[in-house]
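Target chain:
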Amino acid sequence: MTESYAQRDESDAATVLVVDDEDDTREIFKIYLEECGYQVRTAATGESALEQLDGDVDIVLLDRRMPDMTGADVLDTIRTGPHDCRVAMVTAVAPQEELLSLPVDDYLTKPLSGDTLVDVVAQLLTLDSYEETLSEYHRLVRIHERLQSNTRDRPSMHLLDALADERRAVEQQLEELRAQLSDELLAKTAISDNHVSAC
């Protein structure tokens, strides 16, 4: 389990939306996740899930097969809507080729242990932090390189040194976050070391 997300204050706890038409599955997932400090919402149908989806939801655990709307239908609505959240598809059958083409961040096969469930949620949250930090790193690289190449109105060395220090600090954060991510998840999301080394 990724320690940075294992225990969180209620005020900054990530919110997970569990979508499954099986009462027992929803309740078990809710218990596991709340024990690790997450805020948990549950929905028995796709329609209910979409009604509960808002900007506070960080992760959606989405059952693939439901009676009213399939997981794929709910996923399509999420991806075409305004909400930016991670989605892990949960399926009781072996993944088929069609599942691989769905824009999910991960998928889980039932039955799964509580440790696996919590670890996947933590990994997806770490992935969010990684991508945000990566974006900040690229921003700093662009600014630093533009200032260095400005020969007409060259900035002070103090400013350049400060930017270089900040860039190194963010790069260190990236390395630490990447070390927490599984190779499998990195491969699925096409994130690799060259994102930093190419900058």
Observations:
- Residues 1-11, 192-199 have pLDDT under 50 and may be disordered.
- The beta strands are 15-19, 39-43, 57-63, 86-91, 106-109.
